[in-house]
Each structure stands twice: as structure tokens, then as C-alpha cells.
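Q: May I have one protein plus its fold?
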Amino acid sequence: MRSVLAGLLAFVAFVSTASGVHAQTGVPEIENYINSIRTAQARFVQTNPNGSVLQGTLYLRKPGRMRFQYDPPSQLKIVADGVQVTMWDPATHDFGQWPIGWTAASFLVKEPLKLSGDLTVQALNRTADGLIEATIVQTRKPQEGKIIVRFAENPMALRGWSIIDNRGNRVDVALTQLQTGIQLADSLFKYDGPDAGQILNGNRN
């Protein structure tokens, strides 16, 4: 599970510079679309490198707030409170905290998202089923991994992403039932598990 979570969370923040690509490929439209989302809720299906599949509900609110609420029997919690992301899995006793900018999904809640500078759009392609795929890497460290973000068109809508780390491990996230511009409770973005001190002291419930 640790490798799965590393693939989902530990890929350092993306940004992009795509010399000459923006004007002809729709990168500005992608940037504008992501920046237009203030709040969102969607169902997700996450496929991990070991073939396991998890489902749940994603909540996000800008700036920097996000929650992956996994369906039972998974007890995994992943919550971003605007400053850091906390992960806790009671089943495996895995616990971790990272600055929000160090996580792979931070592009969703970055404000504003700028696809120039620190990030590079390596490719922009259309899939056989009509989705647009934007492949994004860190400009200075493209070898560290990449994220492939998928969008529908007309109207544009986020459909998911794939995270591929520098060892080739891949985590796929597919979204359905996406709603934007909705009211979301503050409590969704507050970590509701044990803190690091409790875990170290053996209280893991």
C-alpha cells in the first residue's frame, strides 16, 4: 500500500512550459477550465500498480482543499486542508503528511494553475474515445515522472488522470458524476483521524 500511496501522493508538484504548443493545441483552454473550477465533487475509480481497484468520492475546494473519501471496506483517509495533505490507512498503519504542493493531484487545487514555467506540457493528444490527454512533467526534472490528465470536450470536463512515477508505477483515476460550483462543508477538509503522536503511542483507531 505504501507504494500505491507514494504513486498517488508523493510526486512533487507539476507546472508546465510548452514552447510553441499553447496557441495551437488548446492548452490555454485547459488552463482556463481548471482555473474556473472553485469547488467540485465526483465519484472516482482508482486503479493501483498492483491491479487493486478502489472507489470513492472526491471533494475539492480552492485553494488547496481536497478529500479522497474511499468506499468501505477501505478505511484509507486522504485529506488536504489547504496547507498539507494527511494520509492515514488504519488497515496497514501507514501514516504520512506532505505539503500540498508536493502531491500529484495538487494541480486540481492550485490557484492559479499556470501551465508555464515550472511545468511542461510534453504532449497533447486525442484518444480513440475522443478524450484529450495532456501529458505534464516538471520542467527541471522531467525524469521524475509525469501526469496524464484527461478531459472531455464540448463542454470541457475533467475525466481523470494517470500518475506514472520514475520507476514506471502507474496509478489511474477515472472520474464520473462530476459536479462543480457546489457548496461543500468545511468539515470535509479537516483530517479526522489520529495525529502522528497518537500513532507513535500506539493509538491507531
